Amino acid sequence: MATRRPSFGKDTGLQARMLLTLFLLGLLYVVFVGVLFAAGAGAGIIVVVAVGLLLLQLFASDKIAMGTLGVKEVSPAEEPELHGIIDRLCVQADLPKPRVCVMETPMPNAFAMGRSRKTTTVCATRGILEMLNSSELEGVMAHELTHVINRDVMVMTLAGFFASLASLILQFAFFFGGGGRDEEEDQSIFLVIAVSALVYAISFFLLRALSRYREFAADRGSAVLTGRPSALASALIKISGTIERQPRQDLRQAEGLSAFFIVPPKAKNSLLNLFADHPPLEQRLEALQRLEVQLQSA
């Protein structure tokens, strides 16, 4: 009788939060579309366009994003250490090996993208490959593979679509809503704008909360996979300290994909943690230190 392999890194708390977030967003958008129809905002056309955009985002957004960033796939001959680390982790976690890519930038970072385990791409920047030692790089790659294990990349892509849809409708309402021909039409446009703004705001905060939690979950998964939380902690410290010294134009190029990077490519003095898509570095390090103590005492 075959034994069942353990599900390394899978976080049931994250799974529950992802389901709850998608449920709340789905419920929110059922109400949203109902308001659009009631306001006579041509919701039928909007929904058709939105479905097309959703399919594009699910099946092509990762390719478009990586093309924009200049990411290229690398062979085992080109990057033997990186491939070796990912090979070992995939065997241990019982995962199909993803595409392995490198982004040619001195900014140290890494990310994973893809809608399923079989279509995943894991990418490391040239900066991170040159900066980290082998155990630190393994911790970072284990973090990214945990995102694959938890399937949170696909959920973030799907959930992010809802916020994009609300933003798109909000822009349409402003663009086409000026100079209404009668008071009733003006009231309908105002209703669409108000509801779209509310939906976008709620979506924004739900996504930020989910994004922060999934980073904690990926850190825990890395600790379980490698057995060395301290290696990931060391990597996070190095990456964060170096990113703060990167030219702002390099950071702006990657900010659109901030939620997918292991460390956000932006200046440290961002607004409030409430608006951040990653938890503060100090909280991540404290959580990893607690995991280190637990593993040593086990």
Question: Which descriptors would you attach to this protein?
Answer:
10 helices; single chain; disordered N terminus; mainly alpha; 67% helix
Can you offer a commentary on this structure?
This protein is mainly alpha-helical and 298 residues long. It has a domain at 12-69 and 151-176 and 183-297. It is built from ten helices and four strands, in the order ααβαβββααααααα. It has a four-stranded mixed beta sheet. A hairpin with a 7-residue loop joins strand 3 and strand 4. The longest helix is centred in the last third of the chain and has 44 residues, at 183-226. It is elongated.
Query: What is the overall number of helices?
Result: 10
Q: Give the neighbour order of strands across the main sheet.
A: 1-2-4-3
Which percent bin holds the helix content? 55-70%
Reading the helices and strands in chain order gives HHEHEEEHHHHHHH
Shape: elongated
What structural class do you assign from the helix and strand content? mainly alpha
Q: What is the terminal separation in angstroms?
A: 29 Å
* Mean pLDDT reading: 79
What fraction of residues sit in β-strands?
5-15%
Task: Pick out the low-confidence regions.
Answer: 1-7
How many beta strands in the DSSP annotation? 4
Radius of gyration: 21 Å
Task: Report the biggest beta sheet as strand number plus sense, adding barrel if it closes.
Answer: 4 strands, mixed
